[in-house]
What does this fold into?
Amino acid sequence: MKLAVFLGVCVLALGSAFMGYYLITAAQMEKLEIELQTAINNQQVLENTIKQQNEQIKKALEQAKKTAQQIQTLNTQYSVSQAQVTKLRNKFANFNLEGMALTDPVVLEGKVNRASARVVENLTTITNPEQFDEEITDNTATTN
It folds into this structure.
């Protein structure tokens, strides 16, 4: 009888130990499942962030290309404008205005008027006064 009681207590202790082990293992598995799901969610967030950043980088590179092209265009226009300015300066340097004013003021007046008209025409062509004409949008907020 003592042996039966001893064996009963041992079986009960062994059953309790197994139940404890099973509960601990189940809790660990549940914890690991939660950690796995968190890792999956974090990976998805990371992938979305990487996609967004890649798109932003592409847009920034495209904008940089456009800016470089605009700078190149402006540099070309600047070079052309400088050549025209130099040409006009050289034209004015060739005239002896004092001598012409003393000898024949009427001829000088006609030449100055024609030259002034050409200068205004050339400056209008060079500066293109319509280059900054853009539609202005009203972005002001109304206040109460």
User: Anything to note?
Assistant: DSSP finds three helices and no strands in the chain. The radius of gyration is 44 Å.
